Structures are given as C-alpha cells and as structure tokens.
Amino acid sequence: MTDPLDLFWQRCEGPKAYGVNDCCMTLADVILAAGGPDLMAQHRGRYRTRLGFVRAVRKAGHQSLPDAILAVFAAHGKQVDEPRDFDVAMVGFMQDGEPTIAPAFFHSGFWMLRDDSGALCTEAENLSIYRVI
C-alpha cells in the first residue's frame, strides 16, 4: 500500500502529463491511496491533453473545470466548516503572476496541490471544504 503523502510527492515530480499527474489526477490518486473514493473514475484513461480534458469535462455536462470538480466533491462528500487531513477544496493561488485555482487536499495545516511546476503547499481561507473520506 502506498503512503498518500509519498504518492503526492511522486506525482509532483517532473513535468505535468494530462491524464497521469495533472492537478485532478494527482488529487484523486492521493485521496484513493488515503482510503477515499476515486474522484476521477469517470475520466481515467479518457484524456491525454488539455483539450481532451476540457472535452471530457464538457461531455460530463459541466461548463468549466471548477464546476466539474465541485460537483464531484459534492457527489462523494459533504461540505464542512473546518478542514481535517485529506479533506478537499478548490484553492486559489498565483501561477506565473496570474490568479488561478486548483483542487487540493488538506494535510498538517496546509492545502496541497499539483500546479504546472510541481507541488504547492499553501494556506487558504474561505473555501468550500468537502469531507470525502
């Protein structure tokens, strides 16, 4: 059995590959390793590019990636006020000088996510937090 945190660091090494270690697959793999549901089950093996990912999200009936992610969170968990380890949320951060958002999991006081350059651990407030485990 793979330790969820070790898996997170492994998925954040090297360049991002859609369908393998993008922000959503990384989060889903960590949650699965921690004993939770497979948040990306309906998309595994169905995309390999950014455009393919957008098409998969739209085919599932969502207008945007954040809408799709929040729908999956809500389908697999319940909204909570305070995070505990392995709760999930959409987290805002700066990437290349631009504000962006990505799915993240909480651990040891930080939100952890995969961005374009690798791992990012950050603090965030005022989030819609979901408990999926």
Describe this structure in words.
The chain has 133 residues and is of the alpha+beta class. It has one domain. Helix content is 31%, strand content 26%. The chain contains 4 helices and 6 strands. It has a 4-stranded antiparallel beta sheet with strand order 2-3-4-5, covered by helices on one side. Strands 1-6 form a two-stranded antiparallel ribbon. Strand 2 and strand 3 form a beta hairpin. The model has no long low-confidence stretch (mean pLDDT 93).
Can you describe this structure in just a few lines?
With 133 residues, the protein is an alpha+beta fold.
Helix and strand content put the structural class at: alpha+beta
Series of secondary-structure elements, N-terminal to C-terminal: HHHHEEEEEE
Proportion of residues in β-strands: 25-35%
Biggest sheet: strands side by side, in what order?
2-3-4-5
DSSP helix fraction? 25-40%
According to DSSP, the number of beta strands is: 6
What radius of gyration results from the CA coordinates? 14 Å
Mean pLDDT: 93
For the sheet with most strands, the description reads:
4 strands, antiparallel
Low-confidence stretches: none
Q: In one word, what is the shape? A: globular
Number of helices: 4
How many discrete domains?
1
Distance between the termini: 17 Å
Short descriptors:
single chain; 133 residues; alpha+beta; 6 strands; globular
Record the SSE blueprint.
Layout: H1 4-11, H2 23-33, H3 50-59, H4 65-76, E1 78-80, E2 88-95, E3 98-107, E4 110-115, E5 118-122, E6 129-131
Antiparallel strand pairs: 1-6, 2-3, 3-4, 4-5
Helix pairs in contact: 1-2
